[in-house]
User: Fold this.
Amino acid sequence: MLEQIIDTIPIMITATDRSGKCLFTNAYQSALFDKDPDEMVGTDFANNFEATQAANIRRQDALVLKSSLAIPHYEEEITSDGVDLIFHCNKSPLLNHNGETIGVLTTAVDITARKFAEQHRTHLALHDMLTGLPNRVLLAENVKSTIANCKKTNSQAALLLLDLDRFKIINDTRGHHSGDALLREVAERISKAIGPGDFAARIGGDEFAIIFGKFENIDSINSRCSKLLKALHEPYAISGMGQVISASIGVSLIPNDGDEYEEVLRMADLAMYDAKANGRNCFRFFSEDMNEIAQADAALENELRDAFNKNQFVLEYQPIVAAQSLEYVGLEALIRWNHPRRGRLLPIQFIRVADESGLMDMLGNWVIGEVCREIKSYADRGIDLPRVAINVSPRQFQNQNICDELLAHIKANGIAPSKITIEITEELLIENNEEVRATLQRIRDHGVGISIDDFGTGYSSLQYLRDLPANCLKIDRTFISRIEDSPADRAIIGTIAHLAHALGMRVVAEGVETYAQLDLLRVSGCDEIQGFMIARPQQAKDLGKLLNGRKNDPSSRAAKG
Ligand code: C2E
Ligand code: CA
Ligand code: CA
Assistant:
Protein backbone atom coordinates (compact mmCIF):
# COMPACT_ATOMS: atom_id res chain seq x y z
CA MET A 1 0.00 0.00 0.00
CA LEU A 2 2.83 2.30 0.91
CA GLU A 3 4.42 1.58 -2.46
CA GLN A 4 1.17 2.46 -4.25
CA ILE A 5 0.86 5.65 -2.33
CA ILE A 6 4.43 6.63 -3.11
CA ASP A 7 4.00 5.90 -6.79
CA THR A 8 0.77 7.83 -7.24
CA ILE A 9 1.37 10.87 -5.07
CA PRO A 10 2.13 13.81 -7.43
CA ILE A 11 5.39 14.60 -5.67
CA MET A 12 8.78 13.52 -6.92
CA ILE A 13 10.63 11.50 -4.30
CA THR A 14 14.24 10.46 -4.59
CA ALA A 15 16.75 9.06 -2.14
CA THR A 16 20.45 9.26 -3.00
CA ASP A 17 23.50 7.98 -1.14
CA ARG A 18 26.48 10.08 -0.07
CA SER A 19 28.01 9.79 -3.52
CA GLY A 20 24.84 10.91 -5.29
CA LYS A 21 23.80 7.49 -6.54
CA CYS A 22 20.10 6.89 -6.68
CA LEU A 23 18.89 4.52 -3.96
CA PHE A 24 15.22 4.97 -4.64
CA THR A 25 12.96 7.01 -6.85
CA ASN A 26 9.19 6.95 -7.32
CA ALA A 27 7.40 6.59 -10.64
CA TYR A 28 6.37 10.23 -10.68
CA GLN A 29 10.03 11.26 -10.55
CA SER A 30 11.38 8.79 -13.09
CA ALA A 31 8.59 9.60 -15.55
CA LEU A 32 10.13 13.07 -15.87
CA PHE A 33 13.06 11.37 -17.60
CA ASP A 34 10.97 8.80 -19.43
CA LYS A 35 12.46 6.01 -17.35
CA ASP A 36 11.30 3.31 -14.98
CA PRO A 37 12.32 3.72 -11.34
CA ASP A 38 14.39 0.54 -11.54
CA GLU A 39 16.46 1.89 -14.40
CA MET A 40 17.51 4.85 -12.33
CA VAL A 41 18.56 3.05 -9.19
CA GLY A 42 22.33 2.78 -8.97
CA THR A 43 22.99 5.62 -11.43
CA ASP A 44 24.17 9.15 -10.61
CA PHE A 45 20.93 11.01 -10.04
CA ALA A 46 22.25 14.47 -10.95
CA ASN A 47 23.39 13.16 -14.33
CA ASN A 48 19.78 13.20 -15.46
CA PHE A 49 19.89 16.99 -15.53
CA GLU A 50 21.74 19.42 -17.71
CA ALA A 51 25.16 20.53 -16.50
CA THR A 52 24.35 23.69 -14.51
CA GLN A 53 21.30 22.17 -12.92
CA ALA A 54 23.27 19.02 -12.04
CA ALA A 55 25.99 21.12 -10.41
CA ASN A 56 23.36 22.90 -8.36
CA ILE A 57 21.83 19.61 -7.19
CA ARG A 58 25.25 18.36 -6.12
CA ARG A 59 25.92 21.56 -4.24
CA GLN A 60 22.64 21.37 -2.33
CA ASP A 61 23.18 17.70 -1.55
CA ALA A 62 26.66 18.43 -0.23
CA LEU A 63 25.22 21.06 2.11
CA VAL A 64 22.75 18.59 3.56
CA LEU A 65 25.38 15.89 3.93
CA LYS A 66 27.77 18.24 5.64
CA SER A 67 25.33 19.82 8.07
CA SER A 68 22.86 16.97 8.51
CA LEU A 69 20.22 19.67 8.34
CA ALA A 70 17.27 19.92 5.99
CA ILE A 71 16.89 22.58 3.31
CA PRO A 72 13.16 22.97 3.68
CA HIS A 73 11.98 25.21 0.83
CA TYR A 74 13.68 26.31 -2.28
CA GLU A 75 12.75 26.68 -5.91
CA GLU A 76 14.53 24.96 -8.70
CA GLU A 77 14.12 25.60 -12.39
CA ILE A 78 14.45 22.55 -14.55
CA THR A 79 14.36 22.22 -18.30
CA SER A 80 12.72 19.03 -19.42
CA ASP A 81 12.20 18.39 -23.13
CA GLY A 82 12.79 22.05 -23.79
CA VAL A 83 10.06 23.11 -21.32
CA ASP A 84 10.98 25.23 -18.32
CA LEU A 85 9.47 23.83 -15.17
CA ILE A 86 9.60 25.27 -11.69
CA PHE A 87 9.80 22.93 -8.71
CA HIS A 88 9.30 23.55 -5.08
CA CYS A 89 11.96 21.33 -3.45
CA ASN A 90 12.80 19.99 -0.07
CA LYS A 91 15.98 18.16 0.86
CA SER A 92 16.54 16.40 4.15
CA PRO A 93 19.19 14.02 5.47
CA LEU A 94 18.49 10.34 4.88
CA LEU A 95 19.16 8.58 8.19
CA ASN A 96 19.98 4.98 9.03
CA HIS A 97 18.81 3.15 12.16
CA ASN A 98 21.58 4.73 14.17
CA GLY A 99 20.56 8.19 13.15
CA GLU A 100 23.58 8.66 10.90
CA THR A 101 23.28 10.60 7.66
CA ILE A 102 23.79 8.15 4.85
CA GLY A 103 22.37 10.19 2.01
CA VAL A 104 19.82 12.77 0.92
CA LEU A 105 16.04 12.53 0.59
CA THR A 106 14.68 14.91 -2.02
CA THR A 107 11.06 15.77 -2.70
CA ALA A 108 9.94 18.14 -5.45
CA VAL A 109 6.51 19.51 -6.38
CA ASP A 110 5.86 20.96 -9.80
CA ILE A 111 4.58 24.50 -9.19
CA THR A 112 4.91 25.76 -12.78
CA ALA A 113 1.16 26.24 -13.20
CA ARG A 114 0.83 28.06 -9.89
CA LYS A 115 3.78 30.31 -10.72
CA PHE A 116 2.27 31.07 -14.06
CA ALA A 117 -1.07 31.99 -12.46
CA GLU A 118 0.76 34.24 -10.00
CA GLN A 119 2.59 35.98 -12.79
CA HIS A 120 -0.68 36.35 -14.62
CA ARG A 121 -2.28 37.93 -11.57
CA THR A 122 0.64 40.32 -11.19
CA HIS A 123 0.35 41.12 -14.87
CA LEU A 124 -3.36 41.87 -14.48
CA ALA A 125 -2.71 44.13 -11.52
CA LEU A 126 -0.19 46.10 -13.54
CA HIS A 127 -1.84 46.10 -16.95
CA ASP A 128 -4.97 47.38 -18.56
CA MET A 129 -7.39 44.61 -19.50
CA LEU A 130 -8.69 46.22 -22.66
CA THR A 131 -5.46 47.06 -24.45
CA GLY A 132 -2.92 44.94 -22.60
CA LEU A 133 -0.77 48.02 -22.05
CA PRO A 134 0.75 48.75 -18.63
CA ASN A 135 -1.56 50.69 -16.33
CA ARG A 136 -1.19 53.68 -14.03
CA VAL A 137 0.54 51.64 -11.30
CA LEU A 138 3.27 50.47 -13.64
CA LEU A 139 3.55 53.95 -15.13
CA ALA A 140 4.24 55.37 -11.69
CA GLU A 141 6.97 52.78 -11.11
CA ASN A 142 8.50 53.47 -14.48
CA VAL A 143 8.46 57.23 -14.15
CA LYS A 144 10.03 56.96 -10.72
CA SER A 145 12.82 54.71 -11.97
CA THR A 146 13.27 56.94 -15.03
CA ILE A 147 13.70 59.95 -12.75
CA ALA A 148 16.22 58.08 -10.61
CA ASN A 149 18.09 56.93 -13.70
CA CYS A 150 18.18 60.43 -15.20
CA LYS A 151 19.66 61.78 -11.99
CA LYS A 152 22.23 59.03 -11.78
CA THR A 153 23.39 59.25 -15.38
CA ASN A 154 22.79 62.97 -15.75
CA SER A 155 20.50 62.34 -18.72
CA GLN A 156 17.03 63.46 -19.81
CA ALA A 157 13.77 61.70 -20.53
CA ALA A 158 10.32 62.89 -21.57
CA LEU A 159 6.88 62.07 -20.24
CA LEU A 160 3.99 62.42 -22.70
CA LEU A 161 0.34 62.51 -21.75
CA LEU A 162 -1.84 61.72 -24.72
CA ASP A 163 -5.59 62.25 -24.67
CA LEU A 164 -7.89 61.44 -27.57
CA ASP A 165 -9.93 64.37 -28.85
CA ARG A 166 -13.69 64.04 -28.50
CA PHE A 167 -13.54 60.34 -27.93
CA LYS A 168 -16.83 60.53 -26.09
CA ILE A 169 -18.69 61.28 -29.32
CA ILE A 170 -17.54 57.99 -30.79
CA ASN A 171 -18.56 56.12 -27.68
CA ASP A 172 -21.96 57.79 -27.65
CA THR A 173 -22.76 57.65 -31.34
CA ARG A 174 -21.20 54.32 -32.30
CA GLY A 175 -21.47 52.40 -29.06
CA HIS A 176 -19.00 51.23 -26.43
CA HIS A 177 -18.07 48.24 -28.49
CA SER A 178 -16.72 50.47 -31.25
CA GLY A 179 -15.11 52.72 -28.65
CA ASP A 180 -13.27 49.72 -27.19
CA ALA A 181 -12.15 48.56 -30.61
CA LEU A 182 -10.81 52.02 -31.35
CA LEU A 183 -8.92 52.16 -28.05
CA ARG A 184 -7.29 48.82 -28.77
CA GLU A 185 -6.18 50.01 -32.17
CA VAL A 186 -4.90 53.27 -30.71
CA ALA A 187 -2.86 51.27 -28.17
CA GLU A 188 -1.44 49.19 -30.99
CA ARG A 189 -0.48 52.20 -33.06
CA ILE A 190 1.17 53.82 -30.06
CA SER A 191 3.13 50.65 -29.32
CA LYS A 192 4.28 50.51 -32.94
CA ALA A 193 5.23 54.17 -33.06
CA ILE A 194 7.48 54.16 -30.01
CA GLY A 195 11.04 52.90 -29.78
CA PRO A 196 12.54 49.97 -27.88
CA GLY A 197 13.67 52.08 -24.91
CA ASP A 198 10.27 53.74 -24.58
CA PHE A 199 7.28 52.83 -22.49
CA ALA A 200 3.54 53.25 -23.08
CA ALA A 201 0.65 52.90 -20.64
CA ARG A 202 -3.09 53.40 -20.66
CA ILE A 203 -3.97 55.42 -17.60
CA GLY A 204 -7.63 56.28 -18.08
CA GLY A 205 -10.55 55.98 -20.47
CA ASP A 206 -8.95 57.63 -23.47
CA GLU A 207 -5.77 58.75 -21.79
CA PHE A 208 -2.34 57.28 -22.45
CA ALA A 209 1.13 58.02 -21.14
CA ILE A 210 4.41 57.48 -22.92
CA ILE A 211 7.95 57.72 -21.64
CA PHE A 212 10.68 58.53 -24.13
CA GLY A 213 13.58 56.92 -22.29
CA LYS A 214 16.18 58.43 -24.54
CA PHE A 215 16.21 61.19 -27.12
CA GLU A 216 18.86 63.14 -28.90
CA ASN A 217 17.48 66.65 -28.58
CA ILE A 218 14.22 68.57 -28.40
CA ASP A 219 13.91 68.39 -32.19
CA SER A 220 13.79 64.65 -32.03
CA ILE A 221 10.92 64.81 -29.50
CA ASN A 222 9.14 67.17 -31.89
CA SER A 223 9.43 64.80 -34.79
CA ARG A 224 8.47 61.78 -32.70
CA CYS A 225 5.37 63.54 -31.38
CA SER A 226 4.39 64.55 -34.91
CA LYS A 227 4.89 61.00 -36.07
CA LEU A 228 2.71 59.74 -33.24
CA LEU A 229 -0.08 62.21 -33.98
CA LYS A 230 0.04 61.34 -37.64
CA ALA A 231 -0.15 57.62 -36.96
CA LEU A 232 -3.17 58.12 -34.71
CA HIS A 233 -4.90 60.39 -37.20
CA GLU A 234 -5.04 57.76 -39.95
CA PRO A 235 -8.59 56.43 -40.44
CA TYR A 236 -9.64 53.45 -38.34
CA ALA A 237 -11.76 50.64 -39.71
CA ILE A 238 -14.20 50.13 -36.86
CA SER A 239 -17.07 47.67 -37.36
CA GLY A 240 -16.91 48.10 -41.09
CA MET A 241 -16.94 51.90 -41.06
CA GLY A 242 -14.16 54.42 -41.33
CA GLN A 243 -13.53 56.57 -38.28
CA VAL A 244 -11.11 59.41 -37.77
CA ILE A 245 -9.87 60.63 -34.42
CA SER A 246 -7.06 62.87 -33.27
CA ALA A 247 -5.13 63.26 -30.05
CA SER A 248 -3.60 66.02 -27.97
CA ILE A 249 -0.23 65.53 -26.31
CA GLY A 250 1.40 67.30 -23.39
CA VAL A 251 5.13 66.81 -22.84
CA SER A 252 7.15 67.33 -19.69
CA LEU A 253 10.88 66.85 -19.48
CA ILE A 254 12.54 64.78 -16.79
CA PRO A 255 14.25 66.07 -14.70
CA ASN A 256 13.95 69.68 -15.97
CA ASP A 257 10.24 70.05 -15.28
CA GLY A 258 10.19 68.09 -12.08
CA ASP A 259 11.91 65.36 -10.16
CA GLU A 260 8.88 63.77 -8.53
CA TYR A 261 6.41 61.53 -10.26
CA GLU A 262 3.33 63.60 -9.36
CA GLU A 263 5.08 66.76 -10.47
CA VAL A 264 6.11 65.63 -13.95
CA LEU A 265 2.68 64.12 -14.43
CA ARG A 266 0.97 67.38 -13.46
CA MET A 267 3.23 69.37 -15.80
CA ALA A 268 2.50 67.04 -18.71
CA ASP A 269 -1.18 67.35 -17.87
CA LEU A 270 -1.04 71.15 -17.97
CA ALA A 271 0.74 70.97 -21.32
CA MET A 272 -1.89 68.55 -22.60
CA TYR A 273 -4.68 70.96 -21.64
CA ASP A 274 -2.82 73.67 -23.47
CA ALA A 275 -2.70 71.45 -26.55
CA LYS A 276 -6.47 70.93 -26.25
CA ALA A 277 -7.02 74.64 -25.89
CA ASN A 278 -4.89 75.24 -28.96
CA GLY A 279 -7.20 73.39 -31.26
CA ARG A 280 -6.34 69.77 -30.49
CA ASN A 281 -4.46 67.32 -32.73
CA CYS A 282 -1.20 68.90 -31.59
CA PHE A 283 1.43 68.62 -28.88
CA ARG A 284 2.73 71.15 -26.39
CA PHE A 285 5.72 71.22 -24.10
CA PHE A 286 5.19 72.23 -20.54
CA SER A 287 6.33 75.76 -19.89
CA GLU A 288 6.60 77.78 -16.72
CA ASP A 289 3.78 80.08 -17.97
CA MET A 290 1.42 77.14 -17.82
CA ASN A 291 2.33 76.67 -14.21
CA GLU A 292 1.82 80.37 -13.59
CA ILE A 293 -1.57 80.29 -15.31
CA ALA A 294 -2.55 77.26 -13.26
CA GLN A 295 -1.52 79.07 -10.09
CA ALA A 296 -3.33 82.24 -11.13
CA ASP A 297 -6.40 80.12 -11.87
CA ALA A 298 -6.24 78.58 -8.42
CA ALA A 299 -6.01 82.03 -6.83
CA LEU A 300 -8.89 83.30 -8.98
CA GLU A 301 -10.97 80.33 -7.97
CA ASN A 302 -10.56 81.23 -4.31
CA GLU A 303 -11.47 84.82 -5.05
CA LEU A 304 -14.52 83.69 -6.99
CA ARG A 305 -15.87 81.73 -4.06
CA ASP A 306 -15.37 84.72 -1.87
CA ALA A 307 -16.93 87.06 -4.42
CA PHE A 308 -20.05 84.98 -4.52
CA ASN A 309 -20.48 85.21 -0.77
CA LYS A 310 -19.82 88.95 -0.87
CA ASN A 311 -22.33 89.67 -3.66
CA GLN A 312 -19.74 91.08 -6.01
CA PHE A 313 -21.49 89.90 -9.17
CA VAL A 314 -23.89 92.05 -11.17
CA LEU A 315 -25.77 91.63 -14.41
CA GLU A 316 -25.88 94.02 -17.32
CA TYR A 317 -28.49 93.80 -20.03
CA GLN A 318 -27.84 94.36 -23.71
CA PRO A 319 -30.90 95.17 -25.84
CA ILE A 320 -31.88 93.13 -28.87
CA VAL A 321 -34.04 94.87 -31.49
CA ALA A 322 -36.14 93.78 -34.47
CA ALA A 323 -34.06 94.17 -37.63
CA GLN A 324 -36.65 96.16 -39.59
CA SER A 325 -38.49 98.25 -37.01
CA LEU A 326 -35.62 98.46 -34.49
CA GLU A 327 -38.14 98.00 -31.71
CA TYR A 328 -36.85 96.39 -28.53
CA VAL A 329 -37.71 92.70 -28.59
CA GLY A 330 -35.30 91.31 -26.08
CA LEU A 331 -32.37 91.68 -23.70
CA GLU A 332 -29.34 89.54 -23.05
CA ALA A 333 -28.13 89.24 -19.47
CA LEU A 334 -24.34 89.48 -19.22
CA ILE A 335 -22.49 88.91 -16.00
CA ARG A 336 -19.84 91.23 -14.53
CA TRP A 337 -17.70 90.96 -11.43
CA ASN A 338 -17.02 94.02 -9.34
CA HIS A 339 -13.62 92.96 -8.15
CA PRO A 340 -12.48 94.82 -5.03
CA ARG A 341 -8.98 95.48 -6.42
CA ARG A 342 -9.19 95.01 -10.18
CA GLY A 343 -12.45 96.83 -10.81
CA ARG A 344 -15.20 95.61 -13.11
CA LEU A 345 -14.19 92.30 -14.70
CA LEU A 346 -15.72 90.94 -17.91
CA PRO A 347 -16.78 87.31 -18.24
CA ILE A 348 -13.75 86.43 -20.33
CA GLN A 349 -11.64 87.12 -17.24
CA PHE A 350 -13.38 84.61 -14.99
CA ILE A 351 -15.99 82.40 -16.69
CA ARG A 352 -13.47 79.77 -17.76
CA VAL A 353 -12.15 79.33 -14.23
CA ALA A 354 -15.67 79.34 -12.81
CA ASP A 355 -16.53 76.62 -15.30
CA GLU A 356 -13.46 74.49 -14.68
CA SER A 357 -13.75 74.72 -10.93
CA GLY A 358 -17.41 73.75 -10.89
CA LEU A 359 -18.45 77.15 -9.52
CA MET A 360 -20.44 77.92 -12.65
CA ASP A 361 -23.34 75.84 -11.36
CA MET A 362 -23.81 78.12 -8.40
CA LEU A 363 -23.08 81.26 -10.36
CA GLY A 364 -25.36 80.26 -13.23
CA ASN A 365 -28.16 79.52 -10.83
CA TRP A 366 -27.69 82.97 -9.33
CA VAL A 367 -27.87 84.55 -12.81
CA ILE A 368 -31.15 82.80 -13.57
CA GLY A 369 -32.62 83.86 -10.22
CA GLU A 370 -31.40 87.42 -10.63
CA VAL A 371 -32.92 87.76 -14.12
CA CYS A 372 -36.27 86.42 -12.91
CA ARG A 373 -36.25 88.80 -9.93
CA GLU A 374 -35.41 91.73 -12.22
CA ILE A 375 -38.29 90.95 -14.58
CA LYS A 376 -40.64 90.72 -11.61
CA SER A 377 -39.29 93.86 -10.01
CA TYR A 378 -39.92 95.83 -13.25
CA ALA A 379 -43.35 94.25 -13.65
CA ASP A 380 -44.20 95.35 -10.09
CA ARG A 381 -43.40 98.90 -11.19
CA GLY A 382 -45.60 98.54 -14.27
CA ILE A 383 -42.82 98.05 -16.80
CA ASP A 384 -42.98 94.98 -18.97
CA LEU A 385 -39.41 93.95 -19.88
CA PRO A 386 -39.05 92.08 -23.17
CA ARG A 387 -37.82 88.48 -22.99
CA VAL A 388 -34.38 88.08 -21.47
CA ALA A 389 -31.72 85.75 -22.85
CA ILE A 390 -29.55 83.98 -20.26
CA ASN A 391 -26.23 82.36 -21.15
CA VAL A 392 -26.00 78.84 -19.81
CA SER A 393 -22.64 77.13 -19.98
CA PRO A 394 -22.34 73.46 -20.97
CA ARG A 395 -21.13 72.66 -17.45
CA GLN A 396 -24.49 73.67 -16.05
CA PHE A 397 -26.08 70.88 -18.04
CA GLN A 398 -24.00 68.32 -16.22
CA ASN A 399 -26.10 69.23 -13.25
CA GLN A 400 -29.27 67.21 -13.74
CA ASN A 401 -31.39 69.88 -12.08
CA ILE A 402 -30.94 72.74 -14.51
CA CYS A 403 -34.49 72.46 -15.83
CA ASP A 404 -36.04 72.26 -12.36
CA GLU A 405 -33.94 75.16 -11.09
CA LEU A 406 -34.99 77.28 -14.03
CA LEU A 407 -38.67 76.50 -13.57
CA ALA A 408 -38.42 77.05 -9.82
CA HIS A 409 -37.07 80.59 -10.32
CA ILE A 410 -39.71 81.36 -12.95
CA LYS A 411 -42.46 80.12 -10.67
CA ALA A 412 -41.13 81.81 -7.54
CA ASN A 413 -41.24 85.17 -9.32
CA GLY A 414 -44.55 84.54 -11.02
CA ILE A 415 -43.31 85.40 -14.49
CA ALA A 416 -44.24 83.84 -17.82
CA PRO A 417 -41.75 81.17 -19.00
CA SER A 418 -41.79 82.83 -22.43
CA LYS A 419 -40.02 85.79 -20.81
CA ILE A 420 -36.88 83.66 -20.61
CA THR A 421 -34.63 82.30 -23.33
CA ILE A 422 -31.55 80.28 -22.56
CA GLU A 423 -28.53 80.62 -24.82
CA ILE A 424 -26.53 77.46 -25.31
CA THR A 425 -23.45 76.93 -27.43
CA GLU A 426 -22.66 74.31 -30.01
CA GLU A 427 -20.11 72.91 -27.60
CA LEU A 428 -22.97 71.53 -25.54
CA LEU A 429 -24.30 69.72 -28.58
CA ILE A 430 -21.02 68.22 -29.69
CA GLU A 431 -21.23 65.47 -27.14
CA ASN A 432 -24.50 64.45 -28.71
CA ASN A 433 -25.82 63.47 -25.35
CA GLU A 434 -29.36 62.12 -25.19
CA GLU A 435 -29.84 63.41 -21.66
CA VAL A 436 -28.95 66.94 -22.69
CA ARG A 437 -31.35 66.73 -25.59
CA ALA A 438 -34.13 65.49 -23.32
CA THR A 439 -33.46 68.27 -20.81
CA LEU A 440 -33.59 70.88 -23.58
CA GLN A 441 -36.85 69.42 -24.80
CA ARG A 442 -38.34 69.62 -21.29
CA ILE A 443 -37.22 73.23 -20.97
CA ARG A 444 -38.75 74.06 -24.35
CA ASP A 445 -41.97 72.20 -23.50
CA HIS A 446 -42.40 74.49 -20.53
CA GLY A 447 -42.36 77.50 -22.85
CA VAL A 448 -38.82 78.72 -22.22
CA GLY A 449 -37.00 79.75 -25.40
CA ILE A 450 -33.78 78.09 -26.54
CA SER A 451 -31.25 79.95 -28.59
CA ILE A 452 -28.06 78.57 -30.15
CA ASP A 453 -25.32 81.08 -29.42
CA ASP A 454 -22.15 81.83 -31.39
CA PHE A 455 -23.53 79.78 -34.24
CA GLY A 456 -21.00 78.86 -36.91
CA THR A 457 -17.91 78.80 -34.72
CA GLY A 458 -18.16 75.25 -33.44
CA TYR A 459 -19.13 71.92 -34.73
CA SER A 460 -22.14 72.78 -36.81
CA SER A 461 -23.90 69.66 -37.82
CA LEU A 462 -27.10 70.03 -39.74
CA GLN A 463 -28.44 66.95 -38.06
CA TYR A 464 -28.32 68.39 -34.57
CA LEU A 465 -29.92 71.61 -35.85
CA ARG A 466 -32.82 69.59 -37.17
CA ASP A 467 -33.25 67.52 -34.02
CA LEU A 468 -32.93 70.33 -31.49
CA PRO A 469 -35.88 71.99 -29.82
CA ALA A 470 -34.26 75.42 -30.38
CA ASN A 471 -36.32 78.33 -31.62
CA CYS A 472 -33.60 80.90 -32.17
CA LEU A 473 -30.16 80.99 -33.71
CA LYS A 474 -27.52 83.64 -33.06
CA ILE A 475 -24.99 84.07 -35.81
CA ASP A 476 -21.55 84.59 -34.32
CA ARG A 477 -20.13 88.07 -34.49
CA THR A 478 -17.03 86.97 -36.45
CA PHE A 479 -19.31 86.54 -39.49
CA ILE A 480 -20.97 89.90 -38.86
CA SER A 481 -17.64 91.68 -38.55
CA ARG A 482 -16.61 90.50 -42.03
CA ILE A 483 -19.91 90.98 -43.76
CA GLU A 484 -18.96 94.24 -45.47
CA ASP A 485 -15.73 92.95 -47.02
CA SER A 486 -16.43 89.31 -47.58
CA PRO A 487 -19.01 88.11 -50.10
CA ALA A 488 -18.40 84.61 -48.76
CA ASP A 489 -19.47 85.63 -45.25
CA ARG A 490 -22.53 87.38 -46.70
CA ALA A 491 -23.43 84.19 -48.48
CA ILE A 492 -22.97 82.17 -45.29
CA ILE A 493 -25.17 84.53 -43.29
CA GLY A 494 -27.88 84.47 -45.93
CA THR A 495 -27.78 80.71 -46.08
CA ILE A 496 -27.86 80.30 -42.30
CA ALA A 497 -30.87 82.63 -42.12
CA HIS A 498 -32.64 80.71 -44.86
CA LEU A 499 -31.95 77.38 -43.21
CA ALA A 500 -32.98 78.60 -39.75
CA HIS A 501 -36.26 79.96 -41.10
CA ALA A 502 -36.96 76.66 -42.83
CA LEU A 503 -36.49 74.96 -39.46
CA GLY A 504 -38.80 77.45 -37.78
CA MET A 505 -36.14 79.46 -35.93
CA ARG A 506 -35.61 83.18 -35.52
CA VAL A 507 -32.22 84.54 -36.54
CA VAL A 508 -30.31 87.04 -34.42
CA ALA A 509 -27.17 88.81 -35.60
CA GLU A 510 -24.87 89.71 -32.71
CA GLY A 511 -21.99 92.17 -32.53
CA VAL A 512 -23.52 94.59 -35.03
CA GLU A 513 -21.43 97.75 -34.91
CA THR A 514 -22.21 99.74 -38.05
CA TYR A 515 -25.16 100.86 -40.14
CA ALA A 516 -23.63 99.21 -43.17
CA GLN A 517 -23.68 95.89 -41.34
CA LEU A 518 -27.27 96.49 -40.29
CA ASP A 519 -28.34 97.14 -43.89
CA LEU A 520 -26.66 93.99 -45.16
CA LEU A 521 -28.16 91.93 -42.33
CA ARG A 522 -31.62 93.20 -43.13
CA VAL A 523 -31.14 92.09 -46.73
CA SER A 524 -29.77 88.73 -45.59
CA GLY A 525 -33.00 88.03 -43.77
CA CYS A 526 -31.85 88.35 -40.14
CA ASP A 527 -34.78 88.93 -37.80
CA GLU A 528 -33.10 90.57 -34.87
CA ILE A 529 -30.06 92.68 -34.19
CA GLN A 530 -27.81 93.02 -31.16
CA GLY A 531 -24.65 95.09 -30.94
CA PHE A 532 -22.92 98.25 -29.84
CA MET A 533 -24.57 100.07 -32.75
CA ILE A 534 -27.92 99.62 -30.99
CA ALA A 535 -26.76 99.74 -27.40
CA ARG A 536 -24.01 98.57 -25.11
CA PRO A 537 -24.88 96.36 -22.15
CA GLN A 538 -26.80 98.48 -19.60
CA GLN A 539 -27.17 98.46 -15.87
CA ALA A 540 -30.44 96.98 -14.71
CA LYS A 541 -31.59 100.27 -13.17
CA ASP A 542 -31.34 102.04 -16.56
CA LEU A 543 -33.53 99.61 -18.46
CA GLY A 544 -36.80 101.39 -17.70
CA LYS A 545 -35.46 104.66 -19.03
CA LEU A 546 -34.03 102.94 -22.11
CA LEU A 547 -37.22 101.12 -23.00
CA ASN A 548 -39.59 104.01 -22.34
CA GLY A 549 -37.55 107.12 -23.03
CA ARG A 550 -37.95 107.37 -26.77
CA LYS A 551 -35.85 110.50 -26.77
CA ASN A 552 -32.65 108.58 -26.34
CA ASP A 553 -33.85 105.84 -28.62
CA PRO A 554 -31.08 104.70 -30.96
CA SER A 555 -33.70 103.45 -33.40
CA SER A 556 -34.58 107.00 -34.35
CA ARG A 557 -30.88 107.61 -35.01
CA ALA A 558 -30.62 104.38 -36.94
CA ALA A 559 -33.67 105.19 -38.99
CA LYS A 560 -32.17 108.52 -39.93
CA GLY A 561 -28.74 106.97 -40.52
P1 C2E B 1 -21.85 86.17 -25.80
O1 C2E B 1 -22.93 85.32 -25.28
O2 C2E B 1 -21.49 86.02 -27.23
O3 C2E B 1 -22.24 87.65 -25.44
C1 C2E B 1 -22.06 88.73 -26.28
C2 C2E B 1 -20.78 89.39 -25.99
O4 C2E B 1 -20.49 90.27 -27.05
C3 C2E B 1 -20.85 90.27 -24.74
O5 C2E B 1 -19.55 90.30 -24.17
C4 C2E B 1 -21.16 91.63 -25.32
O6 C2E B 1 -20.77 92.69 -24.50
C5 C2E B 1 -20.36 91.60 -26.58
N1 C2E B 1 -20.89 92.48 -27.59
C6 C2E B 1 -22.17 92.84 -27.78
N2 C2E B 1 -22.28 93.66 -28.84
C7 C2E B 1 -21.05 93.81 -29.35
C8 C2E B 1 -20.51 94.55 -30.45
O7 C2E B 1 -21.21 95.24 -31.19
N3 C2E B 1 -19.19 94.46 -30.67
C9 C2E B 1 -18.39 93.72 -29.87
N4 C2E B 1 -17.09 93.69 -30.14
N5 C2E B 1 -18.84 93.02 -28.81
C10 C2E B 1 -20.17 93.07 -28.56
P2 C2E B 1 -19.32 90.00 -22.66
O8 C2E B 1 -20.36 90.62 -21.82
O9 C2E B 1 -17.90 90.32 -22.37
O10 C2E B 1 -19.54 88.45 -22.56
C11 C2E B 1 -18.67 87.56 -23.14
C12 C2E B 1 -19.16 86.17 -23.05
O11 C2E B 1 -19.22 85.72 -21.71
C13 C2E B 1 -20.56 86.01 -23.58
O12 C2E B 1 -20.50 85.92 -24.95
C14 C2E B 1 -20.98 84.73 -22.92
O13 C2E B 1 -20.52 83.62 -23.65
C15 C2E B 1 -20.25 84.78 -21.61
N6 C2E B 1 -21.18 85.15 -20.54
C16 C2E B 1 -21.64 86.38 -20.20
N7 C2E B 1 -22.50 86.30 -19.18
C17 C2E B 1 -22.62 85.01 -18.87
C18 C2E B 1 -23.37 84.25 -17.91
O14 C2E B 1 -24.15 84.79 -17.11
N8 C2E B 1 -23.23 82.90 -17.90
C19 C2E B 1 -22.40 82.28 -18.78
N9 C2E B 1 -22.29 80.95 -18.71
N10 C2E B 1 -21.68 82.92 -19.68
C20 C2E B 1 -21.79 84.28 -19.73
CA1 CA C 1 -24.88 84.92 -25.53
CA1 CA D 1 -22.71 85.10 -28.75
Summary: The CA atoms of residues 133 and 215 lie 22 Å apart. The chain has three domains: 2-116, 129-286, 296-549.
